[in-house]
Specification:
Blueprint (H helix, E strand, L loop, with lengths): L8 E6 L2 E6 L11 E4 L2 H49 L3 H13 L10 E5 L8 E5 L6 H45 L3 H13 L19 E4 L5 E4 L3 H11 L5 E5 L7 E3 L7 H13 L9 E7 L3 E2 L10 E2 L3 E5 L7 E2 L2
Helix pairs in contact: 1-3, 2-3
Length: 337
């Protein structure tokens, strides 16, 4: 491969992916999307080897994408059921009021009554309401029946709210994994995501299979002002960067309410707003918002980022942040790894 544009053999790129190859120069195509070669054989050799590598990478990731999407579908169905249950639980307050009104009027109820009209003293208008009764039960049993229904719905509401929070966190996590899979560029990253899903019990560990693990490393960039910036390629790397690697005075970047990579800007050395924007662009580019405009990116010192007890990999909370709005661009920074 050479960079001399006098050669006419080149490959075109689209979103950093191989698109096509040409034996003649086409000035109409943007130079930034061309990769030049010195001969037809080198052009074809590179094109098909990289294409094969890309296809194999896609095959490796396709099963993981299917797994994550299936679990997301399960979570969304669960969320619908939980919200439907919450709607039913709105009757809980009414059943408690009925129980208390019946208690206040217990001496006016006779076994065999199918209903009773009472004054609703919980209402501002104190209107008369009709409460249904089970004629086979005693007045006391009818009262207990309403309080039991209230108690059951109250517990059901508490359970639903708890499960909704758990399910929301799971959806957030799975979306982050989905983004990491789509943005991955090498086999080691796919294998680490696979291991992450095993650790999270979405995949079963294979017995009697001992492979030498190739551990991937976070991406390492140098800003235009010479400052080191690190980007996690999966949630395991995100946790490592934020919780172990970074100094508490380093700056942490992440897209606001959008799944994406953790980005660490090392604060040793002087830098300006230009480097801040470059770090924010990396956070936006390696996120679900890559193809969007004006993506909000939050940043704060690492000491303000915390991981809740029991939180899944890559999931953190933070405070005292500022926000930069970025329209993501393909990084042009020097990349060391």
């Amino acid at each position: 491969k050479v960079n001399n544009k006098d050669f006419s053999f080149f490959i075109t790129l689209e979103d950093n992916n191989l698109k096509d190859f040409f034996p003649i120069n086409l000035p109409s195509l943007e130079e930034d999307n061309k990769k030049y070669f010195s001969s037809p054989s080198k052009t074809l050799e590179y094109y098909y080897s990289e294409k094969d590598k890309s296809d194999r990478l896609n095959n490796k990731s396709s099963s993981l994408l299917k797994l994550v999407n299936n679990n997301l579908e399960r979570c969304h169905k669960k969320m619908e059921l939980l919200k439907d249950n919450l709607e039913k639980c709105k009757k809980a307050y009414k059943y408690r009021i009925y129980g208390e009104l019946l208690t206040a009027n217990i001496y006016n109820i006779k076994q065999g009554d199918e209903s009773i009209d009472v004054v609703n003293y919980y209402s501002e208008d104190s209107e008369i309401i009709n409460i249904k009764l089970d004629p086979t039960k005693t007045p006391s049993a009818n009262i207990q029946n309403y309080f039991k229904r209230y108690s059951k719905l109250k517990k059901s509401k508490e359970y639903s709210l708890e499960q909704i929070k758990i399910t929301e966190d799971e959806i957030l996590y799975l979306n982050s994994v989905l983004t990491n899979i789509k943005n991955t560029e090498d086999y080691a990253s796919i294998e680490e995501i696979k291991k992450e899903l095993m650790d999270a019990h979405y995949l079963k560990f294979k017995k009697n299979v001992r492979k030498k693990e190739t551990k991937s490393k976070p991406m390492h960039f140098i800003s235009s002002e010479g400052i080191h910036i690190y980007v996690g390629k999966n949630n395991i790397e995100n946790d490592y960067l934020t919780l172990k690697f970074a100094d508490k005075r380093d700056l942490w970047f992440h897209t606001k309410d959008i799944p994406g990579s953790h980005v660490i800007l090392k604060t040793l050395g002087d830098f300006t707003e230009k480097t801040l924007n470059e770090a924010a662009n990396l956070a936006a580019y390696y996120s679900k918002g890559r193809d969007s405009s004006k993506v909000p990116v939050d940043y704060t010192e690492v000491k303000n980022v915390h991981k809740p007890n029991g939180a899944k990999p890559g999931m953190v909370i933070y405070e005292k942040n500022k926000t930069i709005f970025i329209t993501p661009e393909k990084p042009s920074l020097e990349k060391l790894s």
